[in-house]
Design goal:
Layout (H helix, E strand, L loop, with lengths): L3 H13 L3 E5 L4 H12 L3 E6 L2 H15 L3 E5 L5 H10 L1 H4 L2 E6 L15 H29 L2 E6 L12 H20 L5 E8 L2 E2 L2 H5 L4 H7 L6 E2 H12 L9 E4 L4 E3 L2 E2 L3
Helix pairs in contact: 2-10, 4-6, 6-7
Bound molecules: NADP nicotinamide-adenine-dinucleotide phosphate (NAP).
The site of NADP nicotinamide-adenine-dinucleotide phosphate has 32 residues, from helix 2, strand 2, helix 6 and helix 8.
Length: 268
């Protein structure tokens, strides 16, 4: 039987291990699954996405079912000035962050490079690359001050291997890959860890967004094969960030078993 002093000790230990985790793209898919995983571990969360109704629902659910502190913010990470202003306003909160998960991102369309409108390039590059940069830049000074912090960037196999009609999305993820490597070099010696997770096909809202809400097209992406789930990736993120502080998992590429490369998928 646990004695009262033993219980108090355990509670103190649990509190000491409570961290603040900031997740962008928390309203859906990998970001949302990661929020659920960390909440189940009792961690406090800062959740970011643009859809306020989703943030409110997740906030209510996780506070109630897991009893964790959740700070939801509707913020467009591609608006650098908004990210800067938001960070200025919430410095006391950001100072407590131990892990930043940059999951906000998207692909728009699936067509040859010459068929894209400039507005579509801008959206992908502004969110996937500049959004990740804007948020990370705000957190690094606190991580440096604390001599502790972990940056987890969602790259993609699309950043490692080109595929037809992938062009701008592939380029944006190749930029994430290179930025992640450079961050690791620039931050070496600070105690800050930097990890890139590069998944293959994960069934989330990703394809629905890519095909502008066409669910038939989106569903056909995963037809006859078993894709990864958002929780498969969330579990990996939790694993990477829970290694001892002297261990930095630099990069992980994760495919579904049915997928051998971006273009080679076994459909049964
Ligand atoms: N699914 C895959 O097959 C796959 C494979 C490799 C890599 N990835 C990468 O994994 C990450 C997560 O994707 P997912 O599969 O989870 O897709 P998802 O279900 O569509 O989730 C994307 C998330 O990003 C948020 N987001 C998009 N633009 C934003 C902006 N401007 N500001 C703030 N939040 C924004 C969305 O929320 P709001 O719409 O509410 O803003 C949503 O929460 C992305 O970086 C994606 O490129 C996905």
């Amino acid at each position: 039987m646990t004695t009262l002093p033993g219980f108090v000790q355990a509670l103190k230990h649990a509190k000491a291990n409570t961290s603040m985790i900031l997740i962008t793209g928390a309203t859906s898919g990998i970001g949302e699954a990661t929020a659920r995983r960390f909440a189940a571990m009792g961690q406090s969360l800062i959740l970011i996405g643009r859809r306020e109704d989703r943030l409110d629902a997740l906030h209510a659910e996780l506070s109630k079912t897991q009893g964790v502190k959740v700070h939801p913010f509707s913020l467009d990470v591609s608006q650098t000035a908004s990210v800067q202003n938001w960070a200025k306003e919430h410095g006391a909160l950001l100072k407590q962050v131990k892990i930043l998960v940059n999951s906000a991102g998207l692909a728009l369309g699936f067509k040859p490079v010459q068929d894209y409108e400039a507005k579509e390039w801008d959206t992908m590059l502004d969110i996937n690359v500049k959004g990740l940069l804007a948020m990370t830049r705000e957190l690094i000074p606190y991580f440096k001050e604390n001599r502790d912090g972990h940056i987890v960037n969602l790259g993609s196999t699309a950043g490692h291997y080109a595929y037809p009609n992938g062009n701008i999305y592939c380029a944006s993820k190749a930029a994430v890959r290179m930025l992640t490597e450079c961050m690791r070099l620039d931050l070496n010696g600070t105690g800050i860890r930097v990890t890139e997770i590069s998944p293959g096909m994960v069934e989330t809202e990703f394809s629905k967004v890519r095909f502008s809400g066409d669910t038939k097209k989106a569903d056909s992406v995963y037809a006859g094969m078993t894709p990864l789930t958002a929780d498969d990736i969330a579990e990996t993120i939790v694993w990477c960030t829970s290694r001892p502080r002297h261990v930095n998992v630099q990069e992980l590429i994760i495919y579904p078993t049915d997928q051998a490369s971006p273009t080679l998928v076994k459909r049964h």
